[in-house]
Structures are given as C-alpha cells and as structure tokens.
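Quick log. Single chain, no ligands specified.
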Amino acid sequence: MKKIIECVPNFSEGRDREKIEKIVDAIKEGGKVEVLDVDPGEATNRTVVTFVGEPDDVVEAALRGMKKAAELIDMRGHHGAHPRMGATDVCPLIPVSGITLEECAALARTLAQRAADELGIPTYCYEASAFTPERKNLAVCREGEYEGLPERMGKEDKGPDFGNRPFDEGVARTGCTAVGARDFLIAVNFNLNTTSTRRANAIAFDVREKGRPKREGGKVNGKPIKDENGNTVMIPGTLKGTKAIGWFIDEYGIAQVSMNITDINSTPLHVAFDEVSRAARARGLRVTGTEIVGLVPKRTLIDAGKHYLRMQQRSTGIPDDEIIRIAVKSMGLDELKPFVREEKIIEDMLTDKGGKKLVDLTATGFANETASESPAPGGGSISAYMGALGAALGTMVANLSAHKPGWDDRWEEFSDWAEKGRILIDRLLALVDEDTDAFNRIMDVFAMPKGTAEEKAARAAALEAATLYATEVPLRTMKASYDVFDIVEAMATQGNPNSVTDAGVGALAARAAVLGAQLNVKINAAGLKDRAKAEALVAEAAEIAKKACEREQTILEGVNRTIEK
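-> predicted structure:
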C-alpha cells in the first residue's frame, strides 16, 4: 500500500490573494503533491491549505510553503481574529493510508528541525509529536501568541523545541511555527427524521464524549450539579473522541446531529453512525442518512463496508469498489446528494503521478501490449499476473462458498479465506508493474555516461544495484504466488464442490507463476557481480519452485478425485 499523508498548514495571511497564490504555488512546485483545498478567511486573516502526497514529498512541500510564507508575511504587522504566533502558524501531518500516527510524529519532528535549521524558523512540536505531555496541547505551545514570544524565546522551559534563541529580527518577522502530527478528523452530519433542534441536541449530548451536565433530581430543567471545585459535573457520552451538537438545516428542512470525530481509531465512522442511530431510536427518531463534510481516507469507508457485510454474514473478501458501495448504502451517504468518490475519498482525488499502469489496461489491451515489439511487459510481469489470476480464482471459490445455501454457519470461515486472497491479488498486481519498472531501471543505467573513471564506477555500481533489484522482484513474485496454494488447496478440499475445477485452475496458474518468475530470477542473477548473493537467490528460488510443483500435484490429484466421484 502506498504511504499517503495529509498536511494542513495554516498561514497568517487571508486577505492578500497574490501572496496566498505564491505560497500555494511553492507547495505545488515539482508536481509531487496534490493541493486539495485552499480556504482563506478575511476576518481571521488566515489561510488553511490542504495537500496530500507521499511522506517525503509532503515534507519538502511543507518546507517550501513555510519558506515562501516567511518571505512574504511580516508578523509585525499581522492582525486577525484567530490566535496565531507565526507566518506559518501550525503545520500538522495526518496519516491517510499505509502509515501510522507514530510515523507521522517522527516526520513532524524532522520537519520541525529542518524548518529551524534550514529556514531559521523556530518550531514547537505539538500533539503526537510533542516532546512533553503538556505540549501536546497547541494552546500551551501558542501561549501568549505572537506578542508573547519576546518573553518566551531563549527560555529553556518556554522556548521552542528547535531554533530556541533570544527574540531577534528574524523571529520578529517570521514568528514561531507549531509542527505536529494528529489523526484524521472526520466532520459528519447525521440526518434525522425530525425538525426539532432540541431533540437533535439531546441525541448529540447522549453520544458526544463530553456528554451533558448532571442535574439535580435527574430532571432536564434541574439545576446543574457542581463538584467541590465549583466545576459542573458531567455525565459522559458514549463515543470517545467526538464533539457534537444538534441543529436545523434550512437547505434540507431537517435537523441533524453535527459531529467532529477527532479520534477515528477509537470511534470509526460506522461506530458513530450505529450509536447515533441507537440513540435516535431510543428517543423515537431515526437516522435517515449521513453527510460527510470535507474528505475521508479510503480506509474509513472500507472499514465501514466490511462492518456491515459482517452484520449481513457476507464475505468481506470482495473488491474495494463493492465494499465502498455497501458503506455508502448502509449509512445513507447518498441521501441528500449523490456520493461522488472523487470528491470525498482522498485517495480517489489524487492524480496518478506514475503514468500508465499495465494493470489498468483492459484484458485485450494488456495482451496487445505484451504482444507488441516493446520488450516489456515480459515474462516477469506475466508471471505476476498469472499468480494474481490464481489468487482470484481461489478468492472466487471462497466467496461463492460463503454465500452457498445451507452453509450459512461457515460464512466467516470462507470470508477469512477470501480476505487472504484479496491481499495476494493486490500484492501480485503491484508486482506486474514493479517487474516492468525493474527492467526499465536496467535500461536507464545503460544511458548513463561512461567517459571517465568516476562515471564508469558510478555506472557499474548502478548496474549492480538495478540487477539485484530485478532479481529480487521476481523472487517476491515467486513467494506471493506460492502463498496462493494455501487458498486454492483449502478451496479444493473444503469449498463449494461445484467450483472445485476453478480451484484446480488456480493451482495451475500459481505453479506457472512460480516457475515463470524463477526463470527471471535465474537470468537476472547471472548478471550479478556478487556471486555469493546470486547463488543464494537462485538456490532460494529453486526450493520454492520444487515445493510449488509438489503442491500443485497434490491439489490436482484431489481435484480429479472430486470430479470422478
């Protein structure tokens, strides 16, 4: 899975469109990140930019944006309604896919240090990247705002984590920046079959983490109860990491529970939907649909779709498009307006920077591309695709078995096999293009200059590295294709007997994939200068090929016995 993170820097300029455009252009420079939203505010004199990309690309883009902001924004003349302490006030990194919050926190610390070292901008680390518990709170880092920096700079306990120095001309101009890492925040509205804001609020108080005030006699109009410190005693709601209120929307003519989910690991979207639905039913109401405000990571809808499939006792090992469709229908994401994936799912909004992929071709297009005079795709890519087809056949049998009449008590068993199959399909489809990329890397080396001794040495080192990579890729294809035998064997012996031949063909495809990839391991290893490494790779491939032939034979014997019964 490709690693994708979101970055949402807040710049202290919301009125001068020319300056804002220059900052955004700096972020876009190089075309490796995708700017999803630019939201300037005149009253706050602040612009929020949202962009996404792969981790290293996002860090570089953030640095470019911070540098340009430091050049264009002089904090000595800044005024606005929003709290702030720097030209780039905050710069959080947010995991979207393939990366953890902890990894984002490490990246945020690196970004903060580079901003201080390379740009001269002092930085605090907050939320998940904070070095101390109290600095997890942004308000602590931004205490006193820009005007308070002269008293804080240079102090060991109050100064920034990086670039701490006495308040000088540079700090006066740029201020300080808070760099952090936080989880994705989902803004969502749950539609109700009522026009009553009061009832919508009651549901919101039932579920939000803060809950509602505890009142004397347990009555709605009772006096709030205070603790010994004079603070209102609260009855917590049922959903961790959520904030919510009820309101009426004139545009739709309905009341909604409006919620921010600040911890999607503690409270995924589907859990929030189910709990708001339960709380609504308890008050004689019904949730009729859901409105996502802004964007969500793909995993949010995948997790939701799988949740509702499990409730239906259906297999979750189906394509992502089908899982997302189940999520949309289950939560009524299309009740108020059509749900357009490219406008709501972050990953679907990203422009593919890698150009045309083989796996995106039609079956006819893939065959014709293979048959063309171009040397790629070749046997390595075809081997990976055969492995993917073998995994697909095993997954198909698992899904058919999960839905077979009379086998309802076994749906989860087959769903688990189908999930494993989907993982292998994705791995092998990725290897289709990776094998061709590996071949192209070797071709690129041949274009390197070789006029001097240094150039020859660099070329030789690059060729060795590219050849090793081109040997390791088909070896990974062999390993993934070998894992396909686990699925097709289980389906041949335990799955729907009417589909036993599909499992058998899956075994044939897996064996062909293993042996085909082995040929590529052997021919590429022959070009390695490191003979010990080459021999180890060839030996490992030979052992996998031997076991693959044995597994195929065993499975086919079982398939034929079933056919002959």
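The chain has a mean pLDDT of 94.
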